[in-house]
Amino acid sequence: MTIVVTGATGQLGRLVVESLLRRGASPTDVVATGRDEARLAELATSGVRTAVTDYADAASLAAAFQGADRVLLISGSEVGQRLPQHTAVVDAAKAAGVGQLLYTSISHADTAQMALATEHRETERVIRESGIPFTFLRNSWYLENYLSQVPTHLEHGVVGATRGGRISAATRADYADAAAVALLADDSAGQVLELGGPSFTLAELAATVASVSGREVTATEVSAEELTAILVGAGLPQGYAQVLASADEGIGRGELEVNTGDLERLIGRPPTTLREAIEQTLAP
Ligand SMILES: NC(=O)c1ccc[n+]([C@@H]2O[C@H](COP(=O)([O-])OP(=O)(O)OC[C@H]3O[C@@H](n4cnc5c(N)ncnc54)[C@H](OP(=O)(O)O)[C@@H]3O)[C@@H](O)[C@H]2O)c1
């Protein structure tokens, strides 16, 4: 069975390829794709096949999907460009006769109102309309989104606009493992999987960073407008700051809270917890 992974040069995709191999996929059955040729060369050292693909280059997609049984479309990183890019991938998969298309979406993509959900919802629609058997891997937040902020939390506290909402974040490694399981499974077609780890609030995040570090860490909830201004003041572009504030508002509505148990069931073990991840982050 030939499995193509798009975005394999990225952080999640590399982990999916590693997990596929760990779970017994033959390296020659795996095709890792992306634009970055240096990263593809690194991936090739594990024995997998590689192909340079660009979502803007239909011929590159057609060549990579030739003979593919399953394709994992890892959502692109160019927010605002993703619907046409993902549509190009779906069109190429359809033309190549791919048997199953798996897509890394976002929690509650069908109903979530946060700005980031729009392209995922539209992509899911395009995939459904293509008629290709599909699996939606609706990932909640990456824990790493917060782990990279731990030094800031220690200095300035945790600041957000979540109104105490819960966040079912999990590590990229756990989401990648779930994707590998779904890629290798016989029964994942037709499934919409809501994936996430044990949920926490920003107050619980601050308390955990405080507990692990032994330092005081505050948690402050502000309005979305205030958060946008704070992020712009910290150097983020206005548009990106607004997208992040919109995501926090969505958290306040429960849009990144997941209680299905799908992630634990797929990977066959409890996902890494916030505390474990912060302990690893702060380990000397
Ligand atoms: N759940 C969350 O908290 C969260 C957070 C951030 C992002 N995301 C989403 O999850 C995806 C995977 O996360 P990640 O951490 O692995 O992101 P990442 O490290 O930025 O990787 C993105 C991947 O997409 C590929 N890509 C982007 N544009 C492309 C194009 N036009 N044509 C071909 N390939 C393209 C990149 O390929 P090259 O590097 O080779 O160009 C790279 O392999 C992101 O792209 C984003 O949609 C989710």
TrEMBL record:
| Ranges of residues in domain NmrA-like | 2-252
| SUPFAM superfamilies for this protein | NAD(P)-binding Rossmann-fold domains
Q: InterPro entries given for it?
A: NAD(P)-bd_dom_sf, NmrA-like, NmrA-type_oxidoreductase
Residue ranges of the TM segments: none
> What Gene3D superfamilies does the entry give?
NAD(P)-binding Rossmann-like Domain, UDP-galactose 4-epimerase, domain 1
Name of a matching Pfam family: NmrA
Q: What is this protein called?
A: SDR family oxidoreductase
